[in-house]
Amino acid sequence: MKKTVKPFSQQLNRTFRKWHRKLGVFAAFFIVFLSVTGVALNHTDGLSLAHQPIKSTLLLDYYGISIPQDVRFYQQQTIQVVNNSVWLEGHLLFESDAKIVSVGQLFLKHNKQKVFVVATRQSILLYNLEGELVDMLGTESGVPEMIKAMSINNGQVIVDSAEGYYQTDSDFFDWQVIQPLIAPKWLQSEQASGDVVHQAELAYRAQFLTLERIIIDSHSGRILGDIGVFFMDFIALLLIVLSISGLYIWVKYTKNTRK
Fold it and tell me: Residues with Cβ < 8 Å from 254, sequence gap 6 or more?
C-alpha cells in the first residue's frame, strides 16, 4: 500500500500554523508590554511621568548617577545644600552655577517678614519661609565678589570676600567695608545623621531619573544597552513575521472553506 504524499502547499500551511502558534505564545508577552508602555508614553503629561522621580538606588547606580560630594544642612536641617543646589524640606529651591557658601535666616524690617538668605560666590538670594523667591542680588547690586563666608547678627549681614569684609543691613542697599576687631561668627553647616544625609543624597540623585525615562528606555530596549536595542529589533521582526504568516494562513483557510 502506497503512502499518500501530501501536497507541498498543504505541508507548508501546516508548518506555518505550527510555528505561528509557538512564536505567537512567545511574542504575546512583548505585544502586551509594548502596548502598555506605548499607551503610558502617549499620556505622559496626564500621568505626570516626567515628574515622578525614581528613588531606587539600584536603578540610580545602574544609570551611573553618582552620589553628591557636597551635602550640608542649615536652619535645623530644613535647608539642604547638595552640590550646587539648595533644597527646602526635600523640595528643590534652585540650582546655582557658583558654589553655595552658606544659608542663614534674617528678618526684613521693610516688609516685616523672615527670609532665608542664601549666599553663593557671586550673589545673595532671599527666599521666604514657604520657598518663594523674594529677591536676587548680584554684583550689579553691590554684592561683593567671591564671597567665602557669611555672618548674620542683629539684622546685619557680613560677608568675607576676596576684597575683604563687607557689611549691610536687611535692606541690602549699601555695602560698606569694615575691619572688625573680633572675627564675625560665620554661619556653619549642621551635623546630621547618616539616614538624613542618605535621604538628601537620594532626593538629589532622583531628580535626574524619572519614570518617563525608565518607560522610554524599556520600550526601546535601551535600558539594557545595545543588546536591548538589538533584542527589540528582533522582536519587531518577529511581529512582522507573525503578521505575514497569520495573513498567509488566513488566506489559505479562506480559499479552503470556499471549495
Answer: none
Cα–Cα distance measured from residue 135 to residue 143, given in angstroms and rounded to the nearest whole number: 13
CATH number for the domain formed by residue range(s) 66-192: 2.130.10.10
Q: How many CB atoms lie within 10 A of CB 231?
A: 13
Look up the pTM and report it.
0.73
The tens digit of pLDDT for each residue in 171-224 reads 888 889 988 888 889 999 998 899 999 999 999 999 999 999 999 999 988 888
Candidates 172, 138, 166, 137; CA nearest to 150 is 166
Specify whether the CB–CB gap between 109 and 170 falls below 8 A: yes
